[in-house]
């Protein structure tokens, strides 16, 4: 038994003792995290004429979250794109059949003038500079890797999500658009730009971190804006974000760029020099993590080495689809045929980064082609066929991973997770 001896103490000392035993918490200045359901939504596939100058890259699925914009709020759905800066909404004429945002119905909508700081200075990171239209309003025009284009006026309005209303958020109000993969049946209203640029959605929200978990089921993922503590993830592996001080023509300085240092198929590392993964003097060859791209594309020499090694290791397991003229989605030319649709156990592909590895295994390695029965294609493509001058890691290879974008510490973390469980907890109001 322990014996305590009592001594007489002053009131001030007693107060200090109480503070030590029962510390009071100061109000936190860190905003509470926002949880949004993240859907993997199928894009309707239709044939539209493509401008001859645009890229021929297409997707089957996008990541979509619900938001409310305007006063009174209008329900919208937006594609989450960590490869873009300026968010935009479809603000097409009222006779359009598309799901649109109606700026005329919002009392808080404001069209940004072209002489404003937002138009002249804050838009400097955009791939295409803003201009001034005939009404002296700030005009934007953007082109995406799948050949889609949109243009219209830069505007502000109130955005509501997760119980938080953010006034004067800057976005593009698109009045003209062309899509290579979506038509009158589209179910999304626009795009949520989430890169590191000053006009991106996450930068304007003022959060230093966001995460997502992409389920292999269509409607059971989660997007977390702010800090999170995913208890169902064992641990996250972190790799630093890469940046450069001087602008280079082919380096996207506001992308989530990391350093790929090698690729391993099962236990064999591809025999490539480290220089094959390092950006050159023009900036070409950076590695970007992009939720707006479906699959992963690699620079030509690296893709060729991976394709040859995978053919070698899957010999006898898979039957190659022998049609040299067929290229899935314009970039994926290694396909296999399976009469019964069964896919055997395959060697994993491991993306090796500075300080971390991303393991691609199982069903994420092959994708069943909708238009060809019994044909599945390798989910790594050749960037020379797109063409793009970068390694791009798409959202298909991020399925069932908790992916954390830590802007405060300039790093990216990822680790295996049960993304369907995350979505269920969100739906039950339990958070993550």
From TrEMBL:
An annotated GO BP: proteolysis
Residues annotated as the enzyme's active site: 81, 290
Key word Cell division present: no
Family: Belongs to the peptidase A1 family.
The protein, known as: Peptidase A1 domain-containing protein
A molecular-function term among this protein's GO annotations: aspartic-type endopeptidase activity
Domain Peptidase A1: 63-415
Signal peptide (from-to): 1-27
UniProt keyword Cell cycle present: no
InterPro entries named in the record: Aspartic_peptidase_A1, Pepsin-like_plant, PEPTIDASE_A1, Peptidase_aspartic_dom_sf, TAXi_C, TAXi_N
Keywords per UniProt: Aspartyl protease, Glycoprotein, Hydrolase, Protease, Signal
Gene3D superfamilies, sorted: Acid Proteases
